[in-house]
Amino acid sequence: MEDYLESMYHIEMTRDRIRVKDVAEHLNVSPPSVTEVVHKLEKLGFVVHETYGHIKLTKKGRKIGKEVNGRHKMLTQFLSDILKIDPQTAERDACQMEHVLSKHTLKRLIKFIEFMKSNVKVT
Q: In order of start, what are the domains of the chain with their CATH numbers?
């Protein structure tokens, strides 16, 4: 579900509205799959969705989407800029890592990345 919230957050930041079709395209899944997850997210209070209407992130949903998006960006940047992994692999691996790393490990990794950016020139 975090992938869906992250996708919706990204769409919300780049467009004025979130549509099921846009989420499906962004995640490369079918629109019925998006609708099913949106119903679950709505029951949990992460989104508001009128049938055949636009999706709106709630404050709670936007917060999680923003957090996941931030983790994703940081991990992608680490993999591509510091470890010199090709961008497509870095993107795919970051997406997987952001969901399995513990919060503690992720915080430590972010501190390490910030240290590397400010103190070491990577070639």
A: 2-63 (1.10.10.10), 70-119 (1.10.60)
